[in-house]
Amino acid sequence: MTDDHDHLAGSRLDVTRIEPFGAAVRAPEPGAHVRDVPVETLRALVREHRLVLLRGFDNFAGPQELSAYCERWGELSVWPFGTVLELVEQERPADHIFDHSYMPMHWDGMYREQVPEFQVFQCVRAPGAGNGGETTFSHTTAVLEHTDPATVAQWSAVTGTYHRAMEFYDSVTVSPLVAAHPGHGAQVIRYNEPTAAEDSGFVNHPDLQFSGLPDDALAEVHRSLRAALYDPAHLYAHTWQTGDLVIADNYTLLHGRNAFTSGAPRHLRRVQVLGTPPLDNPGLVR
Length: 286
Ligand SMILES: [Fe+2]
Fold this sequence. Notes:
Layout: E1 14-17, E2 23-26, H1 39-49, E3 51-55, H2 63-70, E4 85-88, E5 103-106, E6 114-125, E7 135-139, H3 140-145, H4 149-156, E8 159-166, E9 169-176, E10 178-180, E11 187-189, E12 207-211, H5 215-229, E13 235-238, E14 245-249, E15 253-257, E16 267-280
Parallel strand pairs: 2-3
Antiparallel strand pairs: 1-2, 3-14, 4-16, 5-15, 6-14, 6-16, 7-13, 7-15, 8-9, 8-12, 10-11
This protein binds fe (ii) ion.
Protein name: TauD/TfdA family dioxygenase
Cofactor: Fe(2+)
GO molecular function: dioxygenase activity
């Protein structure tokens, strides 16, 4: 992080830039609570920087407190389990989300009726130094701006058909790789990164099909797109500290997870905030 205090000049907030994107807000004094920071200030920071980290603040004691706070941001995505997903490694996971494996790049809500604008993550317990488990975020408008037009044209020719069945849904979504941001209309990437079929350590592979180009050109699209998404100029891998709160722009970013040491005490809570108005999933087929 580099010093960059321009964005909230005159305010009491201590904001620094995260590289290659994002803004970090530090607690102004011990005992300051996340709730004390105006939501509209944070919303503006997320819209500008795509990701905001609040660190050093007093945080929410439990899922109900977190959910109540997130309602100040907007309408929440409601799941069979409620509004708060407890991301903890399970002993015999039925799906990779509850494993310690890596999580490929994707956008949240891709298989649901509505696509949330914001994700709010609270780190209840960090996995610990050296244990991995960073949440990875890729800034897709930056990717598109920094990629040569011929390559973007290849990406734009491709449509993904995604089928995933897990505990909470069994859905098919069809989406072009390059789509318009539902708010400002700039181009963003909507992509669920394929995982090698022979990776038997990856629990519950989704069924991903891509069309629009011949197979050899599709292979090159996956290669060039993956390289761009994971380029350090566009990728922020967040190393969790207990108590962190991260708010991310799900319309612009893709995200995933680095693998972590099995048995490490990684515990995140995640809430999804819908846009205003909520965005009906343009790609959902069923
Ligand atoms: Fe996700």
